[in-house]
Amino acid sequence: MNSTLELAKTTQKTWQENSISKRVIYLQNLQRILLKNKETYARLITTEMHKPITQAIAEVEKCALLCDYYLENAESFLETKKIKTENSESYVSYEPLGVVLGVMPWNFPFWQVFRFAVPTLTAGNTVVVKHASNVPKCATTIQTIFEEAGFPKGCYQNLPIPSNKVAEVIANPIIKAVSLTGSEQAGIAVATEAGKHLKKCVLELGGNNAFIILEDANLEKAVASAVNARMQNAGQSCIAAKRFLVQESIHDALISQFKAAVEKLKSGNPLNNDTQIGSLARVDLAKELEIQVKKSIVMGAQLILGGNRNEAFFEPTILIQVTPVMPVFKEETFGPVAAITSFQTLDDAIKLSNQSDFGLGVSIFTQNIEFIKTKISAFNEGAVFINEMVKSDPRLPFGGIKKSGYGRELAEDGIKEFVNVKTVVINKL
């Protein structure tokens, strides 16, 4: 571990001396390698964490899109900004912090790493990545990809350590900042350790996103988006829709269409191109989800589809008559379980949506767009998507509030998270 950190430190000193225009050249190489080998990398993702192969391919393609975005925009994001003051000269420059630690999850084993590493490296830092233990081949392969793209040795390094060693790494003076994508508990641990050593951290934690469907919504489009928002990656996503809030007047019609659409999803071998639902990544995750569902049913939720577990596979499940006291409403469900709650007025929906310790994002389906725009500030979320599912996009900042964490990834905000915003003032004598 020490040799890895020392190499990262040594490399960073020379890496930051490169102009941004030179650094982004490597992103072009990354993009080319990702697209050339996307089927190979996707198969690796599917083999290790069971994501359907078509979704795994889309994940790799999204990483390539990210590279293209920063290839086109990094220079303008990080260029020195001249500020007009009474002084002879004033400007702000953006300089790298040094070596940044990334602690990454298994559910999007390529995308999560690339969206952290690409902007962080492009800003002039070097990175060491502690990846999830259940995707070891993805972890080592990603380092190989960066090396093949020509990044100097030490720019990107995989750090195969157990979770109980993360605190030791954060405490090391070589590490200047840390980015974590993971659970609320992991976020607390990382933030506590970073705070002890006065090191910046970015936390992208859990989510319990609401998906609100108003009575004037286009039901066909709302249902199609809702199914994708909940069932993609077998529901194993922090930004997945988890709580479906449906206006009473359309409740029965929505339930009927939603159930019919979910029933059509094909489960099976995730390596088959027609498989839409795979198993969860681990048996313990499926067991935890099963407990949440069973407790909610005991408390009065009505099961209208699914609910059964076979080892790590959990059937696509729909629960109705869900109330805020039930686990499937108040806790994050990391799997293909849709919890449906009805409401009468928009104010009721806003209250229910905000009735969560998390604040990552919310989707709202309505045809009265101008009116709902006046209500955006009422939602305590990092993102509001109208007539669209919540998703990450390289062009838009991504992150949450409350127990969903703090800081932002992607876009201009993301590349500036791990830089020193340096003010320079010059006066002629």
Produce a short descriptive summary.
By secondary structure, the protein is α/β, with parallel strands linked by helices.
Mind explaining what this structure looks like?
- With 429 residues, this protein is of the alpha/beta class.
- It is built from 16 helices and 20 strands.
- It has helices spanning 2-15, 20-23, 25-36, 38-49, 53-78, 111-122, 136-148, 166-171, 184-196, 219-231, 251-263, 283-298, 327-330, 346-354, 369-373, 411-415, and strands spanning 81-82, 89-96, 99-103, 126-130, 156-158, 175-181, 200-204, 209-213, 241-247, 302-305, 309-310, 313-314, 317-320, 337-343, 358-359, 362-365, 384-386, 401-402, 405-406, 419-426.
- It has a seven-stranded mixed sheet, sandwiched between helices. A six-stranded mixed sheet has the order 5-4-3-6-7-19, with helices on both faces. It has a three-stranded antiparallel sheet with strand order 1-2-20, with no helix packed on it.
- α6 (111-122) links the parallel β3 (99-103) and β4 (126-130).
- α4 (38-49) crosses α5 (53-78) and α4 runs antiparallel to α7 (136-148).
- The termini are far apart.
